Amino acid sequence: MKARTSSTGMLLLILMFIAVNASSQTLHYSGSAQFSVGDYIFSEQTNSLYLANQLGLSHQRFAARLTVPVVRQNSPWVSYTTAGSVSTGGPAQGEVRGRGDQSGQGRRGGDPITVVDTSDFKTIAVSDPSLTLSFSLLNDMFQGRSVQVRGSAKAPVSQPDDGFGTGAWDYSLGVSAMRRLRRAVVFVDVAYWVLGDMEELSLNNSLSYGLSFGRSLGDGSDTVLASFSGSTVIVPGTEPALLVGLGLGHSFDSGNGVSANASIGLTESAPNVSVGVGWRIGLKKW
Prior knowledge:
Layout: H1 7-18, E1 25-38, E2 46-59, E3 62-73, E4 79-81, E5 84-86, H2 93-101, E6 123-126, E7 130-140, E8 145-154, E9 170-181, E10 184-195, E11 206-217, E12 222-231, E13 242-251, E14 257-265, E15 273-285
Antiparallel strand pairs: 1-2, 1-15, 2-3, 3-6, 3-7, 4-5, 7-8, 8-9, 9-10, 10-11, 11-12, 12-13, 13-14, 14-15
């Protein structure tokens, strides 16, 4: 869940491209539910359930998406930005900042930061909403090629002390490309994130990236996908996030789709394990 280029997100994008769109303008609802478990850089484990609700409107080459996440978490140590979950420490952000200041080389597997017991902390709340605008530079479903640029902004409406946000605006600019070769699918995503600072912790702007290889099964409505994603360092003094994932998706003739995925974090900045499902439901066509 660290990077938004998760298996769920990649699968939904691929399924939307595979489905034949008979209309130039559509309104749809899509979402994903992701459960993650991770120690990150702390002495206490954080369990997170992240439910992303997205309303999208597309017209020819343009698309707009409003995302409102709901998070249930058993600690305030992990916050959410447009780049994904980040081990900011929430109310313990001063401890995280201090650890990062100790060495310009970063922690690189150093001792975990000791935090108070949060066994009784169970909070569910709406996280920061975000708006994404995108433009398709190329969208040729017959040749199996797609290139898209996008920009997004996240508004700070949640409370940083609860671990659901950073209390600052975030912005991003990215590009994604997909190529189909018979039954094979290659998907690449790169984005630059401008992340707002917290009161006691400055976050680095970040470059995220994702690479996926997929293959369609049967009549082409099912897709299996292997992915690798990561980002540069966001929290000073920590390792950059790296994840590997595996997913399966199914597209319907109506253009709707469902997916499931699992991923494993390879570094301390990523959750140890994540599992999730995603869906897309068309609401209206013009």
